[in-house]
Amino acid sequence: MRWSGQELGVDQADALPGLAKLNNLVRSVQTPEFAGVTFHEVLAKSALNRVPGQSMMPFGWTINPYRGCSHACVYCFARPTHSYLDLDAGDDFDRQIIVKVNVAEVLRRELARPSWRHEPVALGTNTDPYQRAEGRYELMPGIIDALATSGTPFSILTKGTLLRRDLPLVAVAAEHVPVDVAMSIAIHDHDLQQSLEPGTPSTKARLATVAAVREAGLDCAVFLMPVLPFLTDTRAHLDEALRQVKAAGATSVLYSALHLRGSVKPWFMQWLEREHPELVPKYRSMYYGNNAYPPKEYRRWLAQRVHPLIRAHGLERGREDPVTGGIRSTAESRGRWTRPGAREIAPELGSLGAPSDPATLF
Ligand code: SF4
Prior knowledge:
By secondary structure, the protein is α/β, with parallel strands linked by helices. The protein has one domain: pyruvate-formate lyase- activating enzyme. It is 31% helix and 15% strand. It is built from 11 helices and 12 strands. Helix 5 links the parallel strand 9 and strand 10. The protein is globular. The two termini are 29 Å apart. Mean pLDDT is 85; it is low at 1-13 and 329-362. It binds iron/sulfur cluster (SF4). Iron/sulfur cluster (SF4) binds at residues 69, 71-73, 76, 78, 127-128, 131, 159.
């Protein structure tokens, strides 16, 4: 174990170049349980991030207790955010994890301000709050408690099975405020899933977590995102994915096609060249130049394929919940909140359109 930089507010001589800029860096830690990962513990100045008005996100506020994500999904659209710390969007994003160790404490202060309007807050829209680090730092219980006791509705989106640890707390929170829970499960081919999302729990383990959420008395949406052209968009794959999701008890499904923005594109293409070189020309033509999204024709084709399957499995998306910005849930009937301006979102993007500026989400 390496402990360094114990003094607060002191630049560390051995810190990575970008991290030296963080004058709120407490220390950098490596432990044997997290081989190859370094945690950079920081004291956050704020916990709530306002989502810019022009964003496609249907919620107004986010909390990200971590920057970087050891789930290491090759396609992760949050990767470019690491470059704001002069870290790279590839390996560093997966292995250099910023931990806001005081996030719950700061959040409580922010939520206690008279100016706080109890607007819905989204967790997991950028980096995963239940990535492996959460097992060590346990930041989420404090966050959930702070939101619930302040009367703030919230949503959680994750790939992490660690969510199960907090389900009793989430269920209690849902008795007081509207809460929406969603699991992200997109790839139902085991080898492909392990290759594309090497740090995540398996699809099977995530499906079991959906069942656990339902057993806790909560609705659970599944985000079938991203659908990867020529890899996971066959009728057979989508049908089987929806069958398994339904069997696990999911209450609705959202989907969207892969988008590749900025520095995510070369990182993903490197993977594609290694694993599926035969698809490189097709992807180059779909995501050419600065195109982050596949062509409209593809998205239309995918919609025509997916929508009937979603209907057939009884997993049609609920109406967007104007309270949490997530899928309308049973929690809403107990709510008293409205978010003016909540709107229907582009169906082909689901709830998670790409942010206009990822940096603003921290
Ligand atoms: S779990 Fe989410 S935040 Fe983490 S790497 Fe995967 S896509 Fe990115």
